[in-house]
């Protein structure tokens, strides 16, 4: 046997006996020719150091690379595997200064909606252009505009409609042709002539305060009827006759020469109607004073009321000192008395008395009306007044029927001293009255069916209105009268059929007014949707 053959044969046997496959390196080392290495050392006992080393050498982590162990030389034990490396320490956190720097940076401004949507969909926004900008703005603002338009339309449709009103298209005045009439004025004293609601026809003489005698009783009657009114056909309040009234009733003698009602006795009662009749027809002074005491408690208090009323009526040149006019200190002008007369003709109860030619008192005695103008020529009477100092004076009224209107006229003549003074003043007054009645005339201002205006619905719609009859103005040559169109008693409706009365056309003023209804020429329809949507204000 060759040297070393025994050792070569023994090694496999030992490996086989141990049941452990020799390492490839060891086998190659043992089989090298000329190797001088000694036979392998005997197998260590179980549990010895060798077993421990072998076990440790094969406990390698699964993810580690396997490297064969090599000895340092023949006969030396292989090196134990290197101890596993320590885990890599974690990467230290970023410095605090860097984080603070990023935190203190200002946030970026918000992106436009389309850019933000492009970021979310990972699609870059298209490059800007005028067309894309216009389209984008249209998409944003168009819904807002549509919404506002819808809201505005709803508001316009539900808003209350304006109240319709009448608008006049006819001329607002009418002037009578010709020159102003010349009246037959008295040659002395003063006079004044007017027509109720129309104005003054003229005057004569200096309008200065003069005594007016019993014309004063016109103011006494006016205050009593104003403060104690009663209707036509009634008798009014009952008035107690006192001792003074009975005593003064006896002054209708040649010595005192007063006009009185001498039939009354103390303790009697007289109606207000009969007291006014005694005042205005036989011109009873004692009844004038009785009414003053009955109304105000004393004559002085009543006289104050007379002067206060004169101021209210604009009678600036009038002064009253007694309720009967017997005192010459009671003075006035023809113009001031006409102002009072224009108020008196509005009292039907008074005119019903003054137009009588005579009156029968409660005791059955008949008394003559000193106003000789009644009951002819449509005279309405009112009040005479005569004294030696005052002369003849008369405040008178009359009427003239023109068409369907009774036109009232009022005149006053003062200071007529030609005897007999009562006849002189009545004659002068009659001439003025008849001339004025003749001067009055009527003229058709608007014909039936003529358009005089329209109903304005407030939204541009118009419905014409026409006169339902001829409209006649009353006046005299050169006079200008007013024409007015006014609503009816109620509010104008939003809709109405043709022929429905909408208002009244009025010509003139006061007692001279002529009124004619106006009616729709065509149907009055409600405003349409277009008018409602486009209205402003």
Write the layout of secondary structure elements.
Layout: H1 5-18, H2 24-30, H3 49-57, H4 96-103, H5 113-120, H6 130-158, E1 165-168, E2 173-175, E3 190-195, E4 199-204, E5 210-211, H7 217-227, E6 238-240, H8 243-248, E7 269-271, H9 272-280, H10 285-296, H11 299-312, E8 331-332, H12 334-344, H13 348-354, E9 358-360, E10 366-368, E11 379-387, E12 391-402, E13 405-416, H14 421-439, E14 441-446, E15 451-456, E16 462-467, E17 471-475, E18 480-487, E19 501-507, E20 514-520, H15 529-534
Antiparallel strand pairs: 1-15, 2-18, 3-4, 3-13, 5-8, 6-7, 9-10, 11-12, 12-13, 14-17, 15-16, 16-20, 18-19, 19-20
Helix pairs in contact: 7-10, 9-10, 10-11
Number of strands: 20
Order the strands across the largest sheet as they lie in space.
1-15-16-20-19-18-2
Q: What summary fits the major beta sheet?
A: 7 strands, antiparallel
| Molecular shape | elongated
Taken as a percent bin, the fraction of beta residues is: 15-25%
- Secondary structure tally, helices: 15
Account of the 3D structure:
By secondary structure, the chain is α+β, with helices and mostly antiparallel strands. The protein is built from 15 helices and 20 strands. α7 packs parallel to α10 (285-296), α9 crosses α10 (285-296) and α10 crosses α11. The relative contact order is 0.12. Residues 1-58 and 69-75 have low confidence and may be disordered.
Main features:
disordered N terminus, 537 residues, 15 helices, 20 strands, seven-stranded antiparallel beta sheet, alpha+beta, five-stranded antiparallel beta sheet
Tell me briefly what this model is.
The protein is α+β, with helices and mostly antiparallel strands and 537 residues long.
